[in-house]
Structures are given as C-alpha cells and as structure tokens.
Amino acid sequence: QTRGAMESAKGANAVGDDEEAAVGIECYANSASGFQAILKERYTDFIVNEIGLDGEVVHLTSLDAAVDEEIDSREQEKRQKTIVQLRATQEEHDDHSDRQLDDGKKAPAAAAATPSETQGEGTDAKLEQTEVAASVDFSAEIEIAIADFVKLAGPAEAERLKEFLEQPGVLLPAAEGKPAPAPLILASSNDKAYRTSMHVFFNSHFQLMTDTVEAPADEKASGPVKKDSKRPCLCIRVHPRKPVNSKGGNGGQKRNRDEGGGWEGHRRWPANLPQYLEFTLCKENKDTGDAIGVLSRILHVKPRSFGFAGTKDRRGVTSQRVTIFKVRAARMAKLRLLGMKVGNYRYVDRDLRLGDLKGNLFTLTLRGIEEGSQLSISEAVRTLRTSGFINYFGLQRFGSHSIGTHVVGAALLRGAWEEAVDLILRPRDGDKPQVAKARSIFKEQGNAAAALKHMPTWCVAERSLLEGLVRAQKNDYVSAFSSIPRTTRKMYVHAYQSYLWNRAASERVRRHGLHRVVAGDLIIDTGCQTDIDNEDGDNDWIFSSVREVTPEEASAGVFSITDVVLPLPGSRVIYSESVQKIYEEICQSDGVQLVGFAHSVREYSFGYLTGAYRRLVTKPDKVNFDFVRYSDPSADLAETDLARLQPVQHDTVKPAGKAEEGELLALRLSFALPTASYATMAIRELMKSSSSQASHKAATLSANHTVQN
To answer: Helices (H) and strands (E) in the chain — how many of each?
Structure first.
C-alpha cells in the first residue's frame, strides 16, 4: 500500500509539473536536493502575517476596545465638569430660594398666600433651574451649531432657531406639568437639496426629529427659491426632543440595545476623532473578500466602507490590517464572529488601499518529513536563502479550472471574441451539476437565456456574460463582454501578461542561467533594492529607471541577478533586442500582437495597457526554521494569533530530539516576501516539487498511508 501511494504521489507530481509547464513554470534557481512533505494539511500549517509600510509585522494581540475607553473617559471628564457647574448653580439657587422663604415668613402678605400661589412659585423655581441647566449644558453646542446654520439659512432663521433651542423642553425635559414647546416651522423653499441639507443638519447636531410640511398661509418669510422649478414650496418642521419615558414612539431617537434600557439619540462622531477605524483582522479558512462580506452584513454597511492593502489566501490563518469608515471600536469589539476575530483598534485619517503594504511574513509547516533528512533539508533552506527563487507567477494566478484565464486573455488580445465566449462558457471537468447543466445548454442550444436560468449566482463572470448575450444583438460579443465586471475583464489580459512573463523568465534561465547578469538584460538603475510592484503602472519613476546592461557592465559584474527585471507587456515598457525576440516568439505562437493595437477594441490590446516590470529572482528575508516532532497528525504545530489569544496546551509540539518524543517529523519554516511574490514558488524551489493541488493531495495520501503502515 505504501509503495502504491508513493507511486501515486510521483504520478501526481508529474501531472503537476505538466500543469506548471503549461503556464511557463519550468526552471529552478539552484540545484539543492528536494524532499517530499505535506503542505497545508491543517489551516495552521499556512500562517500569513501582513507587513505594513512601516516594516512592522501585523499581529492580533488584543480584542478589547481600550482606545474607545480612553476617548469616552475624556468625554466623561467633560460631562463631570458640566455636572459640577450645574450643582454649583443649583446650590446657589437653593440658597436664593431659602432666603426668599425666610423673608416670606417675616412678611404678612406672604403669610396670606394661597397654596396654589406657593405651588406656582415652586414650579417657577424648577423651571428656572431647568433653564439654567440647559444653558450650562448646551450653550456651547448651540453657539457652534448656530454659526453653521447662519451659513445654511441666513441670520434671521438662525435667530429663530436659537430662541427655539434655548426653550426648556426642546433639548432638555420641561419642568413637571409644563407642556412641551410647539415645533419650529422654518421658512419654506422649493429647493429639495436645501431641505435635505436641513434634515442632515438637525440629525448631526442635535438628533432632533424633522419632517416636511406645507407652508402656512400666513408665512411672512421664505427660504431659497428656484425660479424655474415646478416643485412646491415646503417647510422643515423641527420637533422638540421627547422625554425618555414619553408615550408614542422614540421621538426619532435610537434604542441603546447594549444597555437594554432607555432610548438614546444617535451618537455623534466625537470631535477631533479621525474618521477611519483601523483594526487587525485574523481569519481562518476565509478569503479576505468573504470576511469583509460577513462584517458588512453584520454592521449593515456597504463593503466599499472597508479598505485593505491586499487579499490573503483562503486556506490558512492570516492577519492583516483593515479600515472602516466611522464605526467605533466598541461596536466592533462586541461582534460575535465565526472563524475570525478583530482587534488592535486605532483611529486614522486615511483608509487603507491596495498596495499599502511592504510584504508578508509566512510561517509554514511541512509535515511527514522522512527521518534522517534533517541535514539535507537544512542545507536546502540555507541555499534558498542565498540563491532565492525564480519570481514566477503562481498557478493560482491562472485560475483553478481546466481552461486557464490566460487562454481567455490570449483570445481577447487576438480579437477572437466568439472564441473567448466559448472558452468561458464551455463545459469543464469538475463542474458542479447546476453549472454543468447551464454550460451544456449553451453549448448544445446556443440559448443564453435558457442557460442563464440554471447558472448559479456565484458564477459571476459566466452569469454576467450570459446576461450580456441576452441583451446584445446577435454576434455582438464585444458588447456582451462589457457586462462582465471590469476587474474580471482585466484579469484575463493580466493573466496572459503573467503567462508571457513566466515563459520569458524560463527561457532567460535556460539560455544564461542565474549565476551572472549578461549584456541585454534589463535592470532598474536606482542603486538600491526597491519594491516595483506596479502591475497597474502606478510607480511612474520605474519606467525612466529601467535600462539595458552594456557588455562592459556585464563583463565587470556591476550588477547582481536580483537587479534583473523582465517586462509585463504594455505601451510604456522597453525591451532589449534579445528580450524582445523571446517575447515575440511566444506571442507569435499564440497569434498575439506584442506592440501596438491588434484591433479597434483598445481595452484588449497591449497598446492600451501601461505595462510593468517584475524582478527575475526574489530572495526571501527573515528566514528561520526548526524541526518539530509530533505524534498526532491533527495537532497544530505552529502558534497562530488566534491560539495566543485563546491558549490551548499541546503536549505534542516539541523540538526534534529523542525518538520517544514523537515518531513523526515536520519542518517549521518562516520567511518574508515582498508584495506580489508567491510563497508557493518559494516552497516549490525548496522542495523541488510541483506546487499544484493534485501533487499536494497525493503527498498527503502517501504520508497517511506510511503512518498507517
């Protein structure tokens, strides 16, 4: 059984090699011996921690919202000062009332006062205290708001609003037994945008309920009027704030669910607090997009409210920074999430955007290593550290289906629109039944509408294309393609760029090796190692920094192999004569035009794309490794951020040593890579084996058979 499993693993590795060769992944950077191991048997075997632009490795170390506690503490201090002022004012009024009462006892007229008069005097005192409290508590806020309102509605309306807000019962409850003030009806206007700005103003400043009513017949003034507008003139009516225990709804205020009682107004964003909350997201077995989707649904915000620097692998445990617009840390900290946690909150002035990272730190566990191979594996790791690896685009760049995304990209670049449609909708091995049925209907009947009824919603590109075919005129495939989301359309052409780069890199290595830089190589002449991840052409300085190596420089060994770059085709990149010949040979075999426009649809031509450069060789940084013995194949052998926050004791994790400590052996390896470099390509170089999923699955089966026997 073990021999059969090993043979199966070798066969799968051969298939994996063919899969890699089909996208140009063909060579290795060094000749160190490889080895067999199991990768990603458990999610914790593949750990990724983002490295920020500041060089700091992102970890989830705290789940609490201490940052909000500090902010709320400062707000509480302000409220305490206000309370002290109120108490002082109340004591002063109490003393004043006591003196009046003493004087009243001495005055005969006061002795004859009726009970109703005395009661009225007490009510007036309460009302006076309420007025003082209102003036102390809201005077500053009213002044700030009125200054803004003058710009919005003019001084006359601002004066009316100020008188309204200062009345007891508008912002603070009225004295007991006193009726609430009447709503304020502002000047009418037929400008809907103006009225909308009024609603927004009262919601943001005082959280007062507003509605729109017809202008009263005796209106003496009016607001902004559009002469050519046929809309009626309407007024904004502003209602006083209803008391907490009042009947008939919540007065436009939001219930405080967390405290379980009372009603609170919509909490305003604290003054001088940056508008973005940045936090660490640690997830397990989830794509970054899926995780953002879950958070957006729970928080009732749109996914575009979030920002992040890059997407992380699904099968693994990953930690990265994320931003969200105007959501407090305390609210995030109360979320109950499955398979992910958030924490390490701070407020920032800017959202995160794609590319806002320096790289990623990978911590990988390779299981099922053969006993006695520690020395050769250690040498392989040290060789990887010094030689680096060919910076290929990994298999995941080209999709997970039997028809690669680069094949579709080549058809688009040729202008073979009908072929591109067929490639996307053609039946494929491994399709789920519903998808297979939809593809079969389109192939056999050519009926896009019928196929669309069966195509699942998660097949975004396929559904979008079918919808486009239904709407478009017959054979108008270009219009149909425009229904596919733009990011997906770009993916096809970018995939072919990546395929070209891989093929060119392999040809460069076959011709000249990686021991030296040769005349005709392209290098970035900046004098330092610089991040050049500019697939969309954002780093303009790169295009003026790339040049060809001269024969004299090649002979003198001025540059190292890590300085060499190869282009991703586009209008702004340059080629040396030798490099361009390689690219043209590959393009010619695919019927693709390397330079200029092959057809009138600019979006699918290299002449339309900016182009970019990519380093031929990448060397991993911060390389560390050790060997771990274990007995239980299901044991976690590396500690994740989630495990550190919820520690679980594992007696199976021990350094390599005596045989009784565990019969199984694993390599625990960590290294850092710059953005756009693939960890799977580093592992391929280390193990000298295919990075395909089929190969890894076969290796897992082989190791499991060995353990059982």
So the answer is: 21, 21
Residue 313 annotated to the active site: yes
Spatial CB neighbours of 502, under 8 Å, sequence gap ≥ 6: 23, 24, 25, 392, 393
566 has which bridge partners? 614
Residue with the two structure tokens 């407020």? 347
* Torsion on CA atoms 519, 522, 525, 526, rounded to nearest 10: -140
Q: Which long-range contacts (CB under 8 A, 24 or more apart) does 451-456 make?
A: 451/425, 456/432
Q: Residue 200, SS3?
A: helix
Residue 693 makes CB contacts below 8 A (sequence gap 6+) with 400
What lies within 8 Å, CB to CB, of 642 at 6+ separation is: 60, 282, 284, 317, 341
pLDDT in tens, 6-36: 444 455 455 557 889 999 999 999 999 999 9
Structure letter (DSSP) for residue 474? T
The three-state secondary structure class of 670 is: strand
If one counts every other C-beta atom within 10 angstroms of the C-beta of residue 239, the result is 18
pLDDT tens-digit series, residues 487-519: 888 899 999 999 999 999 999 999 999 999 999
Q: How does DSSP classify residue 660? A: G
Residue 611, pLDDT above cutoff 80 = yes
CA distances from 196 to 193, 454, 505 (A): 5, 44, 59
Closest of 164, 206, 199 to residue 181, by C-alpha: 164
Give yes or no for a contact between 326 and 283, defined as CB atoms under 8 angstroms apart.
Answer: no
Residues 6+ apart with CB under 8 A from 386: 619
| 522-524 vs 546-548, strand pairing mode | antiparallel
Q: Tell me the C-alpha distance between 580 and 569, whole Å.
A: 10
Among 352-356, 456-460, 539-543, top mean pLDDT goes to: 352-356
C-alpha span between 656 and 209 (Å, rounded): 69
Q: Which residue is catalytic, options 17, 228, 287, 313?
A: 313
**DSSP per-residue letters across 13-37:** HHHHHHHHHTTT----S--------
Task: Name residue 196's amino acid.
Answer: T
Cα(429)–Cα(439) distance, integer angstroms: 11
Residue 256 has pLDDT above 50, yes or no: no
Residues linked to residue 85 through DSSP beta bridges, in sequence order: none
The residue-averaged pLDDT of 416-428 equals 91
Q: Quote the CA–CA distance of 582 and 576 in Å, as a whole number.
A: 10
- Give Dmax over CA atoms of the chain in angstroms: 119
Query: Which pTM value belongs to this model?
Result: 0.70
Question: Over 70: is that where the pLDDT of 668 sits?
Answer: yes
Residue 464 token pair: 């979008």
The two tokens of residue 365 are 């566990």
The upper half-sphere exposure of residue 117, i.e. CA atoms within 13 Å in the direction of its Cβ, equals 7
DSSP β-bridge partners for residue 254:
264
